[in-house]
């Protein structure tokens, strides 16, 4: 019989050796979080993300999702670039495309899942066969609530997890297990009276502290939404073509974030410097090649062009921007054509005003 406390210490050591910056252990009681989730769903603030409601209460009840679960091993892996000024500079340059920092490198799902499996294998080598399932955004899991209970950080007013020593530029992963490990002390909250994340949100998606209406969130609009982006929100999206980081960039706790040296998270294909016109010119083959192993694939090629068309409509009407839009006005996708037409009409309206 293995000593649970000693095993927990070993798991934390093995986790660090595998590239996780932090490992903690949570119980399975999430009553308050379940009530918050039910209210969020009842208000329709999940938008078209039907999967958020599909599994009932299993999302907030780990032992129902995976019967026999006693504890959740929660891990943190940092991905910060260490250069928030460069991110702000891209947002201020209307000709460049802004891609959320987490999506600039390799798809984190694959990176974390592989490391979690190695951690499970290491545990099994120590204790023998045991019950477990590893998750990285791949099942109905309340990962931030579990990470909070595992001592990895607190849930901020923007709903992201914040760690007082590492900010919020990190990914989370979980292992549901039947091992009776000691539970970590939960993290205390330190947002205080700060509301920078709320006031900086371009679309006002953080409708109250700790409450994000996905229907207004740029990450949702550019990644999860498969339909037309509401017209009233398009001008507010600016040049953000995949995701949004404004609430994290504004968070004062991120001054403590450390640059990640994980090779898998290094920028690919110059996406941190690419122009809108350059990315809009990608054909589908180029898109698939340049997004292989990338989280950007989730938007799909059609969604990618839709998003860039909106950003081009928000950009200065240079000859290059207008030519790029004109080249796509007859695109086979009605979704793409609609957003291209909107962008061209936006430039035409500006021309009329200036005349």
TrEMBL record:
Cob(II)alamin binds at residues 59, 137, 161, 172, 219, 244-245. Belongs to the QueG family. It comes from Arenimonas terrae. GO terms for molecular function: 4 iron, 4 sulfur cluster binding; cobalamin binding; epoxyqueuosine reductase activity; metal ion binding. The keyword ATP-binding does not apply. The keyword Membrane does not apply. GO terms for biological process: tRNA queuosine(34) biosynthetic process. This is Epoxyqueuosine reductase. [4Fe-4S] cluster 1 binds at residues 191, 194, 197, 251. HAMAP family: QueG (MF_00916). Binds 2 [4Fe-4S] clusters per monomer. Pathway: tRNA modification; tRNA-queuosine biosynthesis. It catalyses: epoxyqueuosine(34) in tRNA + AH2 = queuosine(34) in tRNA + A + H2O.
